[in-house]
Structure formats: C-alpha cells, structure tokens
Amino acid sequence: MKKKAAEKAKPAKRSKAAKDPNKPMRPPSAFFDFMEEFRKTFKEKNYNNKSVYVVGKTGGDKWKILSEAKKAPNVAKANKIKSEYNSKMNAYNKKQVNTVAIYEEILK
Fold first, then answer.
1. Which end of the chain is more exposed for a tag (fewer CB within 10 A), N or C?
2. DSSP alpha helix (H) spans, 10-67
3. How far does the signal peptide extend, from start to end residue (predicted)?
4. pTM beyond 0.90
5. Domain containing 83: what range?
C-alpha cells in the first residue's frame, strides 16, 4: 500500500512548552466573579437544568443588563485581586531575571 505524498509531508507536531508551576495564576475578571455567584443561585432555582449553555447564556444576559452600580462589588473585588496578582507577577519576573542572570554568569 502506498501512502499519498500529502500524508508523507505532514509537519511534525510541536509539543507545548512546559508551564512554570511557580508562575502566579491570572485572576478572574469581574464577570467570572459574578458568574461564580450566579451559578450557585441558578442551580438552586433550576436544579433540573444541567445545561452549561443555558447557565452561561442566562448569566451573560443578566450581566449585560446589570447597572454599573450593581456590577461595582464584582469590579472592586476583581481589581483588588488583580492588584495582588500584579505584585506577585512583579516579584516572579524579578526572580526570573535574577535566575537568567545567574545562568548567564555560569555560561561565561
């Protein structure tokens, strides 16, 4: 059995770079903070509905119609978490720069 030329010429799959387990995780946005609360209340009211689509669609629609005043607690919480994340990332990046500098010293 002969293989077609197109099948032979497939490029090799690249493996994903390994993620650093010490890198801080990105914080959730205000919308995801809202959805976490919304899912709980939605499941209590609609315990028979197991559709992820319906929960997401309903939550998204509700988020769109919320006023800025009602979104404010979620936005404030998200901003607080984001500022903590930024400080952790700055510390992480400084550590990475120091690590790279040490390896460059060793290689010289």
1. N
2. 30-45, 52-65
3. none
4. no
5. 26-107
